[in-house]
Amino acid sequence: MTHKKITQWLVITDLDGTLLNHHNYAMENALPAIRKLQMMNIPIIFNTSKTFDESVALQNKLDIKDPFIVENGSCIYLPKNKYPTIESDFNIHSRDQYWEIILGKSHSDISNALNTIDTPTSYYKLLSKCNSEEASILTGLTIEQSKQAISRDFSEPLIWKSNEDHLQLFKQQLTDKNLNTLQGGRFLHVLGNCDKGIATDTLKGILLNQKITAGTEIKTITLGDSQNDAAMLNVGDISIIVKSPSNYNLTKTITPTIQTTLEAPDGWSQGIDDALIKAKDLQ
Question: Is 177 within the bounds of a domain?
């Protein structure tokens, strides 16, 4: 006698431009969809370029208590109260009330690499070199939020100021240093050899190891809006591009399951509603 597999759905979502409005970071209109997912016991997992501090602050604001992924796939965090022990082949660290699984490189390693390449520093502006007032102007965040954005552990966002030829040379120099670059909605991110897709698959594997019920499978609804979300969207069982000013490169390379007609946060809710209908067909 064969038993039907139990399917656990996860929502893996980018934040800026996807759950949060690209221009003003509005999120309130996503709350009904968030509460609906929570009633259905579907975890809402941030997979973002934001930092640990930014992600924890937003989780607290939205009353979300699930794992999250920061700095474009550089590190996974799992709350200890939900996962008292973790079985994983990765090195597991402890940070506050979370287990920490690092997939990327440290900010200091990235800074050292940037200091040793030939690209003139006048070609780019590093977020970590900005004060909170300058960062606020670049990001549209409040001063306090900008402090959290500057405090990075595993990546370096920058504004590119030179031409495309210089940019390609810059990227090649970083590749030679075993580093990666990803274009987000506002910044070019320098990080280790990781991305949101690798982190999504890694987290799925970790969560499967925690399951007690035999035959459980994990499927994902992935949501993004810009090029740094491409790898995450590619590994989703249901992929959603949320309408955003950052769609221009992403839509050239990704054909999603769903493409919303509304921008975040309404577009996030629209995508979730459509995805839940499709999810029933994939059970």
Answer: yes
- Phi, psi for residue 208 in degrees, rounded to 5: -60, -35
Q: Do 203 and 100 share a structural domain? A: yes
Tens place of pLDDT per residue across the chain (283 aa): 455 678 999 999 999 999 999 999 999 999 999 999 999 999 999 999 999 999 999 999 999 999 999 999 999 999 999 999 887 778 899 999 999 999 999 999 999 999 999 999 999 999 999 999 999 999 888 999 899 999 999 999 999 999 999 999 999 999 999 999 999 888 999 999 999 999 999 999 999 887 654 568 999 999 999 999 999 999 999 999 999 999 988 998 999 999 999 999 999 999 999 999 999 887 6
Q: Tokens 């977020």 appear where? A: 127
Find the CATH number of the domain harbouring 62: 3.40.50.1000
Based on the structure, what is the number of domains in the chain? Answer: 2
Rounded to 10 degrees, the C-alpha dihedral 120/125/127/129 comes to 70
Distance from C-alpha of 77 to C-alpha of 211, rounded to nearest angstrom: 17
214 and 74 together in one domain: yes
Domain ranges, residue 168: 107-191
d(CA 65, CA 63): 7
Query: Whole-model pTM above 0.85?
Result: yes
Q: Give a yes or no: residue 38 inside a domain.
A: yes
